[in-house]
Amino acid sequence: MKRCWILLAMMGALTAPPAFGDAFDDAKKGEAARDAGDFARAVRYYSRAIESGELSGSNLAIIFNNRGESFRHNRQLSRAVRDYNQAIRLRPKYAFALNNRGFAFEGMGQFDRAIQDYDQAISFKPDFSAALNNRGNAYIKKGRLKDAVKDFNQAIVLRPDYAFAFNNRGYTHKVMGQNSRAIEDFNRAIELSPKFADAFINRGEVFEKDKKIGKALEDYSQAIRLRPNYGRALANRGGILFARGLLDQAANDLDAALRVDPELARAYLVRGLVLRKKGQNKRAIDDFSHAIRLRPGDPVFFFNRGLEYEKGLFYDQAIKDYDRAIRLKPGYARALYNRGNTRLKQGRFERAIDDYDRAIRLESKYAKAYGNRGHANEKLGRARRAFLDFKKTYELGLRPAWLIEKLRKKTPDG
Fold it and tell me: Which of 10, 114, 260, 302 could potentially form a cystine with 105 if both were Cys, beta carbons 3.0 to 4.6 Å apart?
């Protein structure tokens, strides 16, 4: 998802005083620093202009708005909001400042307040395509996907060349599972803006979901060419390289992704899988633990760490992780199966059978679960039940040599 990061309220809107005072010069220097990306320096110049006492009314409102934008770009969101408040107090119908304050509230996770500001900005300026685009993004975060699409539609009507709105509408279609519509929008965004890295990665994720892996890989690679330090693109490409068995190349991408963005939970997960393949059990556990700290509500992370604990014979820790995965996702058949395996290794055969039963209820053709339930029944002396489980395993197409040997024996009576 990408919004339009608009630096609204241009310096050209300032009215220069007759004597062309120092405040106006400082404001222009602040604008130049902001355009150059030096936001700390921009704040210093804007502050001097504000403190000079030479500006008032709309001119002062513009400087407060612009300093607020500089604070926002430096991630000082509370200070940004205070400046937008001052701008709006001086100029109550200042649509640009309302839009920008909404953007800051959104960055603070205050989506309802953001939407209120976007509403006001649009009411004062009905053709404000950027505010419509931003409100659409806030609606996505509130789960109001149909409302988001309406806003992106309106933004595109107002600006048919608005690549950001096409990309964001595509993202919304992607979340809604409307993949063909999403691809159409991402295609249009890329046509309008060929260097739009976010549109490439978004399209790549839809291609990957549709199992068009080659196309997904091309899009991730193009996003990285356009933005070499694009953590999400590096992580996604690393995932595909891992799936293709290119472990070293995958590790390079995942390492680079985490250097850029140490909070990419998925990158820790996939790098953990790479380390597992390389037999580096402890490092894999460390990566899965990092992923869990970043996203503690994801059952897959607990499941994978549980697998590593199980492989390392740390059975109690493994069961704790499988328990957590199952609590988060009660229908997680593979976690139930692996918890059953761990209990089987501990000699807790009845509890293992309970887990295999639940896994089989969820997936009636789970051949491995039947086979291992057969082992547990065998350990408990339930020969006939074990035989029936082994037979079902064979019928489902899983036919290792040990199983064929067991089935050659006479069907037990007990």
Answer: 114
Rounded CA gap, 240 and 178, in Å?
23
Is the alpha carbon torsion for 289, 290, 296, 300 positive or negative? negative
Q: What angle do CA 189, 193, 198 make, to 5 degrees?
A: 65
- The CA distance from 246 to 54, in Å, is 64
Residue 258 burial (C-beta neighbours within 10 Å; 0-12, 13-18, 19+)? buried
Helices (H) and strands (E) in the chain, counts: 23, 0
Task: Quote the pTM value.
Answer: 0.83
Residue 15 scores a pLDDT above 90: no
Query: Closest by alpha carbon to 235, among 197, 262, 195?
Result: 262
CB-based contacts of 146, cutoff 8 Å, min separation 6: none
Provide the CB-side half-sphere exposure for 195 (13 A, CA).
3
Query: From its phi and psi, is residue 214 left (phi > 0), alpha (psi between -120 and 50) or beta?
Result: alpha
How many Å is the Cα radius of gyration of the chain?
A: 29
Tell whether the torsion through CA atoms of 247, 251, 257 and 263 is positive or negative: positive
How far is 236 from 216, CA to CA, in rounded Å?
A: 9
State the Cα–Cα distance between residues 274 and 350, nearest whole angstrom: 34
Read off the pLDDT of residues 313-357 as tens digits, 9 standing for 90 and up. 999 999 999 999 999 999 999 999 999 999 999 999 999 999 999
Q: Indicate the DSSP class of residue 8.
A: -
Cα–Cα distances in Å, from 190 out to 91, 133, 199, 296? Answer: 38, 17, 6, 35
Please say whether the beta carbons of 220 and 201 come within 8 A. Answer: yes
